[in-house]
Specification:
The termini are far apart. Helix content is 78%, strand content 0%. The chain is built from two helices and no strands.
Length: 89
C-alpha cells in the first residue's frame, strides 16, 4: 500500500514540476513584439472544409461500391436464369 502511495506521489511530482518551474516565466504583453496571427474563422472554415471533403469522398466510395455490387448481383442473376433455362430443357 505504501509503495502505491509513493508511486502516486512521485508521479504527481513529475507531472507538476514543469508548472512549478515555469511559474516565474510570466512576461507582460508587449504590442511591439506581437507576432502576426491568423484569424480563428479561417481555421474553422478549413476544418469544416476538410471534414466535408472526407464525408464526400466516403459517400462517393460507397456509391461506387454499391454500383459494383449491383452489377455483380445482376450478373449472378443472369447466370442463375441461364442455369434454370438449361434445367427446363
Amino acid at each position: 500500500m505504501t509503495q502505491k502511495l509513493y508511486a502516486l506521489f512521485a508521479a504527481l511530482c513529475v507531472l507538476l514540476a514543469p508548472a512549478l518551474v515555469h511559474a516565474d516565466d510570466y512576461v507582460d504583453f508587449d504590442p511591439s513584439k506581437a507576432q502576426k496571427t491568423v484569424s480563428a474563422p479561417l481555421f474553422v472554415i478549413i476544418a469544416y472544409s476538410a471534414i466535408w471533403l472526407v464525408v464526400l469522398l466516403f459517400a462517393v466510395m460507397l456509391l461506387r461500391h454499391q454500383r459494383a455490387i449491383g452489377d455483380e448481383l445482376a450478373q449472378a442473376q443472369a447466370r442463375l436464369d441461364e442455369l434454370e433455362d438449361d434445367d427446363d430443357r
